[in-house]
Write a structure and sequence with these properties.
Blueprint lengths: L1 H26 L2 H22 L5 H18 L4 H11 L5 H19 L6 H11 L5 H7 L4 H17 L10 H22 L3 E2 L5 H17 L4 H14 L25 H17 L5 H14 L8 H15 L2 H15 L1 H11 L10 H12 L3 H14 L1 E2 H13 L1
Parallel strand pairs: 1-2
InterPro entries: DUF6596, RNA_pol_sigma70_ECF_CS, RNA_pol_sigma70_r2, RNA_pol_sigma70_r4_t2, RNA_pol_sigma_r2, RNA_pol_sigma_r3/r4-like, WH-like_DNA-bd_sf
Pfam families: DUF6596, Sigma70_r2, Sigma70_r4_2
Protein name: RNA polymerase sigma factor
Length: 409
């Protein structure tokens, strides 16, 4: 029975987005659609242990869920009109046409879950729930939140979508750029929280990285003509390629300059570079994710730290800073400048950022400053900066690393 339950969970992770998307198109209510999909999941948990896993489990879930939708529609006052719609939709049962129909629904669901009417935390939770098939408990554990808080967040998000009468559609024209930016931001935030956890005892949460990468691939496949969608996939593929090298045997962080590059996943790098080439072919004007992917590619192509094209990276960061006006980007540019032209130049730029209000409690500012001071052999100042960085971070593994480096000085 345990094996069958494992099969149900695996199928659900793969098929949840398609089932919820198809139901949302029918009932025009994302909350109700998820309830119907959950009913189908419960039916699978009840029947598959006794009857065995069906030959096409995804189709089984879809069929059962649509039957639930039909039963519901029949009980409504205007059931005849809606029943006709269900009948027409279920006519698409085989072949490429049906596949495209379902994928269109999934894309609509992506834009619904990431709608700008929702706050960022709600978009992230709802996306992981509807498109990732994660349980409320799994989302809560991933973001170090309580399960009731996440459940409430998801409920409020569904109510907000219903109240705003958000259409289940892919936006067109000028609205598409704004809405796509919201979708890409959610995927990017999920990946970053997994790649470097902001709080807790773990340096990374690989399950979040994997889910974000899956979503990035999904959006890129569904929107092949959007360069920023291709670029985000490229960025996350290359970043994810370093996962095995980012921690040691004890789970402690290993910085980029100290990583064993033989541990980098060459398949993910190849995929990332291919996605970047696809983005390059679509436009000569690089967006925010496009520039970040170009930076990641510079690292991926280099076999050593010394062999990295730091001047190109500094140039990409300069352009990214112009586009975003972000002090964090300037912080990264300072690192690149220090590697390309020496630590003194990087420190000059960092000193200009020390009065920036948004970086006042940002632990990486003193951490980077400490690194540059070490390279300039100003050890006492460096130790103080590393200790200050350790006091600011909320991640236990990162705090231990910073304190260890300070002690070594």
């Amino acid at each position: 029975m345990t094996r069958t339950h494992g099969a149900v969970e695996a199928v659900w992770r793969i098929e949840a987005a398609r089932v919820v998307a198809a139901l949302t198109r029918l009932v025009r209510d994302v909350g109700l659609a998820e309830e119907l999909a959950q009913d189908a999941l419960v039916a699978a948990l009840e029947q598959w242990p006794a009857e065995g896993v069906p030959r096409n489990p995804g189709a089984w879930l879809m069929t059962v869920a649509k039957r639930r939708a039909i039963d519901l529609i029949r009980r409504e006052e205007n059931y005849r009109r809606k029943l006709d719609e269900v009948g027409r939709s279920t006519a698409f049962t085989t072949g490429l046409e049906r596949h495209e129909f379902i994928e269109d629904d999934v894309l609509r669901l992506v834009f619904t879950a990431c709608h700008p009417v929702l706050p960022t935390e709600a978009k992230v939770a709802l996306t992981l729930r509807l498109l990732g098939g994660l349980t409320t408990g799994e989302i809560a554990r991933a973001f170090l939140a309580t399960e009731p808080a996440v459940a409430q967040r998801i409920v409020r998000a569904k109510k907000a979508l219903a109240k705003a009468e958000v259409e289940f559609e892919v936006p067109e024209g000028p609205e598409l750029a704004e809405r796509l930016a919201s979708v890409l931001e959610v995927v990017y935030l999920v990946f970053n929280e997994g790649y470097t956890a902001t709080a807790g005892d773990d340096w990374m949460r690989p399950e979040l990285c994997a889910e974000a990468l899956r979503l990035a691939r999904l959006v890129a496949a569904l929107m092949p003509a959007e360069p920023e969608a291709q670029a985000l996939q490229a960025l996350l593929e290359i970043q994810a390629s370093r996962t095995a090298a980012r921690t040691d045997a004890a789970g402690d962080p290993v910085l980029l300059t100290d990583q064993n590059r033989d541990l980098w996943n060459r398949l993910l790098i190849t995929r990332g570079l291919a996605a970047l080439a696809a983005a390059d072919a679509l436009t000569a004007e690089r967006g925010v994710y496009h520039l970040q992917a170009a930076i990641a590619a510079c690292h991926a192509r280099a076999h050593t730290v010394e062999g990295t094209d730091w001047r190109a990276i500094a140039g990409h960061y300069e352009e990214l800073a112009r586009r975003t006006g972000s002090p964090v980007v300037e912080l990264n540019r300072a690192v690149a400048l220090s590697m390309a032209y020496g630590p003194a130049l990087g420190l000059t730029l960092l000193d200009q950022l020390t009065g920036e209000p948004s970086l006042r409690d940002y632990h990486l500012l003193p951490a980077v400053r400490g690194d540059l001071l070490v390279r300039l052999d100003r050890r006492e100042e460096a130790r103080a900066e590393l200790q200050r960085a350790a006091a600011l971070t909320r991640n236990a593994r990162e705090r231990a690393l910073l304190l260890s480096r300070a002690a070594d000085l």
